Each structure stands twice: as C-alpha cells, then as structure tokens.
C-alpha cells in the first residue's frame, strides 16, 4: 500500500498509532492530537478494542 504522501498533515494518534483525520482530530488536555474516540476512551480508562464485542 504505497499511495504516496498525503497533502494534508496527519498527526499520529498516540493511543492507537494510526493517522488522525481532521474530522476525527481532537486535542486532549496536553494539546496532543488524538482521535475523538480514543480521547473519550482514555477518559474512561479503557483502550479501544478491535475485535468481537463491538456494539
Ligand atoms: Zn486513535
């Protein structure tokens, strides 16, 4: 998967290590860009899990 660099700057989410889209970007208390979902999860103290048990 080498589509080349995207024009937009995509910060990496410190929680899930994935690029953060602008529409999903949120800034935590430390001014760190993070996914909104990851941010909410961090507030709850639970990391987002990928797998069964969704919804
Ligand atoms: Zn994330």
Which compounds are bound in this model? zinc ion
Shape: globular
Structural class: alpha+beta
The residue-averaged pLDDT reads 79
Give the uncertain stretches in residue-range form. none
* Spatial order of the strands forming the largest sheet: 1-2
The helicity comes to 10-25%
Radius of gyration: 13 Å
What's the number of extended β-strand segments? 2
The CA-CA distance between the termini, in Å, is: 30 Å
Percent range for β-strand residues: 5-15%
What is the H-and-E element order?
EEH
Separate helix tally: 1
Largest sheet: 2 strands, antiparallel
Could you outline the blueprint of secondary structure elements for this entry?
Elements: E1 25-27, E2 33-35, H1 36-44
Antiparallel strand pairs: 1-2
Describe this structure in words.
16% of the residues lie in helices and 11% in strands. Strands 1-2 form a two-stranded antiparallel ribbon. The chain contains one helix and two strands, in the order E-E-H. A hairpin with a 5-residue loop joins strand 1 and strand 2. It has a domain of 38 residues. It is α+β, with helices and mostly antiparallel strands and 55 residues long. Bound molecules: zinc ion. The site of zinc ion (ZN) has 6 residues, from loops.
């Amino acid at each position: 998967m080498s589509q080349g660099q995207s024009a937009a700057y995509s910060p990496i989410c410190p929680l899930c290590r994935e690029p953060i889209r602008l529409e999903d970007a949120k800034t935590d208390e430390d001014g760190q860009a993070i996914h909104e979902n990851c941010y909410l999860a961090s507030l709850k103290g639970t990391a987002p899990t990928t797998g069964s048990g969704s919804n």
